[in-house]
Amino acid sequence: MNPERQKSQQVGELYAEHSSWLTGWIRSRLGCHELAADIAQDTFVRLLKRPKYFSNMGEARAFLSTIAKGLYIDHWRRKQVEQAWLESLAHIEEEFVPSAEHSASMIELLCELDAMIAKLPKKVANTLILSQLHGLTYREIAERLSVSERMVKRYMAQAMLQCLLFKSDRSL
Amino acid sequence: MASSQPSNYVHLEAAAEWFAVLADKPVAEADQLAWQQWLNEDEAHRQAWLQVESVGAMFSSFQDNGSQQSARYVLDTTSSMNSRSMSSSSMNRRQLMKGVLGVTGVAALGWIGWSETPLPRIASAWMADFHTQVGQVSAYDLEDGTKAWLNTNSAMNRSYGRDYRDLSLVTGEILVQTKASSDSRAFSVSCAHGVIRSGVDKTRFCVRQLSDKQTVLAVYEGAVSLAPFGSQLSRALHAGEEVIFSSHAMADTQPASLLYESWRNGLLIVEDMPLANFMAEIGRYHYGHINLDPSVADLRVVGTFPIHDMDLVLSMLSKSFPIRIKHPLSWWVSISAA
């Protein structure tokens, strides 16, 4: 059997064995059946992309629940982004309020940015946002964060490098 | 999942350094030339730089005025969520909103319907054993026969051991109904400010965290004892009684309000509540905004309202009060004097 088929067969077996347990486990935490089913599904899809071998059931379940936890945190972050976007709209002059389609694509992009920035240390993330989104100079950022301009530059390099690594990790 | 270093790591690192040089304007001519030279040196450098540009492009997508303001707000909000060191006394989202949007944009008449929950607590709620989202009310049957209901946007942990049973409220509101049981293990509900213990008799009580400083306990059946964490005193509360407490003190016992129980059935029962508080209360169950004109904030609301049907609630209000309600989008309500 070729390795690809072997992989998906193994995930298939895991699915048969653990999917209803996993859905129940997530539902007991989220209280919402549909969302739990979606997240369980995504967990197995994730596993298909990066298969892993387990020596026993406990190990498999521990691994599955870790992935699921990561996925529902993503889901929660996404909700936060959507909510913050909606809030911000009420504070924008009417003529500038983006259309629904535009909003949808912006939210998509913001989720991606947010996921990327979430991995950065706080000051590094702030530096990147202040520079790229608020258009501040390094001197202004340095004043705002009470660090040296040299430090700001170092934060910028660090931020970009981590973003690049994050993206290349995602595209694997 | 640990990621291994990509093969082009060195080039990505160099490209990130160049990005840091070029992102501050104005760029010195010498830097510009040196960068150009680096870029032309090697195809791998160009490839790495393309990646930098694709990250940069994500930010520059927000070019028009409106989406730029929104993007700033979203990222400033969500990135402050990541700070684990943020203490409960630091900025809440309302302050953050003011700070970020400042005086630009249209000022809201009143900004309510907004959870004041500090963000780190929201994050820990997501990791709790049980939790609900905004608008969700869930019932749980626990193995000892205890029933628990979590109200909107709430979270709790369960820890049952050999000689204790404890439910701890992480955030929000919980209604607990214990069985008159032969279970010899002590039962308690702990929260940010204290612990509530029930005896062997059947009890039903609600615990709701009101703010960082205060929690309310309302008892509907049986009797419980309340002990704030920082106090030597405890107090017995009986069915029909309610008390607000902090870590150090307990206010006078009051008659229990139906408010803390009726949500279990999807209802909001209010006896004499200012409209501003009422909208904040109903706002807990819905995403979005409620703008309220201060001139109508003190109107007194009485009645029974469906928690999940905002349209119906608004039409009930507009029949009882001289107010004008605009509800142009499902998440945006604006209330002013008629």
UniProtKB/TrEMBL annotation, chain A:
Q: Which residues form the RNA polymerase sigma-70 region domain?
A: 14-80
The cross-references to Gene3D superfamilies, in alphabetical order and at most eight, read: 1.10.1740.10, Winged helix-like DNA-binding domain superfamily/Winged helix DNA-binding domain
Q: Does the keyword rRNA-binding apply?
A: no
InterPro entries per the UniProt record, alphabetical: RNA_pol_sigma-70-like (IPR039425), RNA_pol_sigma-70_dom (IPR014284), RNA_pol_sigma70_r2 (IPR007627), RNA_pol_sigma70_r4_t2 (IPR013249), RNA_pol_sigma_r2 (IPR013325), RNA_pol_sigma_r3/r4-like (IPR013324), WH-like_DNA-bd_sf (IPR036388)
GO molecular function, a single term: sigma factor activity
Its family?
Belongs to the sigma-70 factor family. ECF subfamily.
Q: What is this protein called?
A: RNA polymerase sigma-70 factor, ECF subfamily
List the top taxonomic levels of the source. Answer: Bacteria, Pseudomonadati, Pseudomonadota, Gammaproteobacteria, Oceanospirillales
From TrEMBL, chain B:
According to the entry, every stretch annotated as the FecR N-terminal domain falls at 13-54
- Write down the superkingdom of origin: Bacteria
Q: Which InterPro entries match?
A: FecR, FecR_N, Ferrdict_sens_TM
Task: Give an example GO molecular function.
Answer: sigma factor antagonist activity
Q: Give the signal peptide, or none.
A: none
Q: Where is the FecR protein domain?
A: 130-224
Q: What is this protein called?
A: FecR family protein
Q: Name the source organism.
A: Marinomonas polaris DSM 16579
The upper taxonomy is: Bacteria, Pseudomonadati, Pseudomonadota, Gammaproteobacteria, Oceanospirillales
